[in-house]
Design goal:
The chain is α/β, with parallel strands linked by helices. The chain is built from ten helices and ten strands. The chain has a six-stranded mixed beta sheet with strand order 6-7-8-3-9-10, with helices on both faces.
């Protein structure tokens, strides 16, 4: 059984797409207020794991506990209302709505907030993500960095205890990625646990205290970033590129 500080505990997670095994007997746990990075080559199963943890797709095997409760059979909206927030690799704003309206939908339907409480939460999330000047702009008119900020702000509007981030730094310049790092540090400071998939390793390790490497649908390493990035199996899975291009320590 997980200890009292464990926020999410997933055990024996398996997922198949027809004959293709994407996740095989994956164990993953995160403690309250912890920040964990997930790395690995393309096709390693990273995004599928986030999809299973968030409820976007059901696992074929295993079980998931969140805050001590079994959420294995709950869909994504139900898990969101319990405190699991999620951003997507490709931003998915609600078209035809303003930035503020996007957050208001999230706060009401995903975060159980209404009236002034929902409004205040949206304003706080926009301010944190630097999006207040864009509150009345149509979401589909935003540039990439601002769409990513909106994706993050909308997840925050649900008041998550656990925030799942899928390559939120992808496609950004180093300066833009640094701005996101600052935002995520503030989120961590508010006591939100973070699971972050990212290929930009030198950005990731500025935030996380623990790194998990996946390959072939399995976890092949789990521990402090400097230890994981020097692990022989990790270097082999990455063909040396991620570990050698962005060494830690």
């Amino acid at each position: 059984m997980p200890d009292a500080d464990t926020l999410l505990d997933a055990r024996g997670i398996g997922k198949r797409f027809n004959a293709l095994t994407v996740l095989s007997d994956v164990d993953f746990a995160i403690r309250a207020e912890e920040a964990v990075g997930i790395v690995g080559p393309n096709g390693a199963g990273k995004t599928t794991l986030l999809n299973v943890l968030s409820g976007a797709m059901p696992a074929d095997a295993g079980h998931i506990l969140f805050a001590g409760q079994d959420v294995s059979r709950l869909d994504a909206p139900a898990r969101c209302r319990r405190g699991i927030g999620r951003s997507h690799q490709i931003p998915r704003p609600f078209g035809g709505m303003t930035v503020f309206e996007n957050l208001l939908v999230a706060a009401r339907t995903g975060g159980n907030a209404h009236g002034a409480a929902a409004y205040d939460r949206c304003v706080d999330s926009l301010r944190l993500c630097g999006m207040l000047p864009f509150a009345n702009r149509r979401a589909e008119a935003l540039a990439l960095l601002d769409r990513k900020r909106l994706e993050l702000a909308r997840a925050l509007a649900t008041a998550p205890r656990l925030l799942l981030l899928d390559e939120i730094g992808g496609g950004l310049t180093d300066a833009e990625a640094a701005e996101l790092v600052d935002i995520i540090r503030v989120i961590r400071g508010r006591g939100v646990a973070v699971v972050w998939i990212e290929h930009i390793v030198h950005v990731l390790v500025q935030v996380v205290g623990r790194l998990v490497c996946m390959d072939g649908g399995r976890v092949i390493a789990d521990g402090p970033p400097d230890t994981v990035l020097r692990d022989a199996a990790v270097i082999d899975a990455y063909l040396g590129s991620a570990a050698h291009d962005h060494p830690v320590g």
